[in-house]
Specification:
This protein is an alpha/beta fold. It folds into two domains: 141 residues, Rossmann fold (3-Layer(aba) Sandwich), CATH 3.40.50; 177 residues, 3-Layer(aba) Sandwich (Rossmann fold), CATH 3.40.50. The protein is 35% helix and 15% strand. It contains 13 helices and 13 strands. Helix 2 packs parallel to helix 6, helix 4 packs across helix 5 and helix 8 packs parallel to helix 13.
Length: 346
């Protein structure tokens, strides 16, 4: 494939959300393979740097704090001018990210025309359409579209992550303390969703599913929540008859999360970032999905089942349901257990 550019220094504006960042890893891999001699820097939020740490697709990570005001952001952008980036691949859709690349003096800036930012890009791509609207497509393919445009061959669509040996040692310690030597199935439950409450299922239903998996399969259940989701963890735990594996008091970093997820036999989750971490490690998933369009996140690389009820108002992509949350209300524990039973090892 003919290269549109031959850059010596590449800046990649990475997605801000965990799931999106995981789905972007095939594109990062394609850039590394397409430009093996180029210096590649990732511009990303600090938590995404921890997520992608250990991958061999880049030479440096430049943290861009998400809460910076425009003046601070501009100062950081101007400071990056000395790095002399020839090419910028902007995976995010925001006006802010395109403006940052322009202020940082990136000479060729490639990304999708969105939020009125087309004039800030030297190469403004257009989303595929469905009628007059953007056609939903798997986010990984969207990122691959950018790298194909600049001449990178991108046929491998499988996401990829890595973790440190220290994280795996800690994960194995936690698993052993929980009784994994008994050859019980390891099941993770990731009930959170930073997108908003419309994606959340119900603590009592998660608890019912967890108890049933313990009763039927003698599963060892881990509830995987972020520190800010402590209340959600407690709500699920308090509704359970059985006890989940002891993680409530353990600070779970992203590095440790990756290591734990890689050891699971099954992950039950909402349409959240942990889902894509599981896909990267080949862990089967059962995804409870309501207000979002599955076409944005579903890939043949995923070994799993999406549990979803068709309702007249979905997908709405609203963070807060304005009505009765029927897309999630109509998903029962029995539906989730049926999906899980076909994926658990026997």
């Amino acid at each position: 494939m003919k290269k549109r550019y031959v850059p010596s220094r590449i800046a990649i504006g990475c997605p801000n959300w965990i799931g999106d960042a995981v789905m972007a890893t095939p594109a990062l891999r394609a850039v590394r393979r397409g430009f093996p001699e180029s210096h590649i820097a990732l511009l990303l939020k600090p938590n995404i740097s921890e997520l992608l740490n250990g991958l061999p697709f880049f030479d440096e990570m430049i943290p861009i704090p998400a809460d910076q005001d425009f003046r601070s952001l501009a100062r950081l952008a101007f400071a990056l001018r000395r790095k002399n980036f020839d090419l910028g691949l902007i995976f995010t859709h925001s006006f802010r990210s395109a403006m940052f690349a322009r202020l940082a003096g990136v000479r060729r800036r490639v990304g999708y025309s969105a939020q009125g930012r087309g004039f800030l890009l030297t190469d403004a791509l257009h989303f595929p359409t469905e009628g007059r609207r953007k056609r939903p497509q798997y986010m990984g393919d969207e990122y691959l579209g950018i790298v194909r445009y600049v001449g990178c061959k991108a046929t491998d669509r499988s996401p990829e992550l890595a973790f440190t040996s220290e994280a795996m040692a800690r994960a194995e310690e936690l698993l052993s303390l929980s009784g994994t030597e008994e050859e019980r199935p390891l099941v993770g439950i990731a009930p959170g969703a930073f997108f908003g409450p419309s994606k959340l299922w119900y603590p009592e239903r998660w608890a019912a599913v967890a108890d049933a998996l313990v009763d039927r399969s003698e599963a060892l259940v881990f509830i995987l929540t972020a520190p800010v989701e402590r209340e959600l963890y407690q709500q699920i735990e308090s509704n359970m008859r059985t006890r989940p594996a002891p993680l409530r008091e353990t600070p779970v970093s992203l590095d440790l999360l990756k290591a734990i997820v890689s050891e699971l036999d099954l992950l039950l989750c909402t349409d959240c970032g942990v889902r894509h971490v599981a896909v990267a490690f080949g862990v089967p998933t059962v995804v409870i999905m309501g207000p979002t369009d599955p076409r944005y996140t579903q890939t043949e690389c995923e070994k799993g089942v999406v549990v979803r009820k068709e309702v007249e108002c979905s997908p709405c992509h609203k963070k807060v349901c304005p009505t009765d949350h029927r897309c999630m209300q109509r998903i029962t524990p029995e539906m989730v257990l049926e999906a899980a039973s076909g994926l658990l090892p026997h």
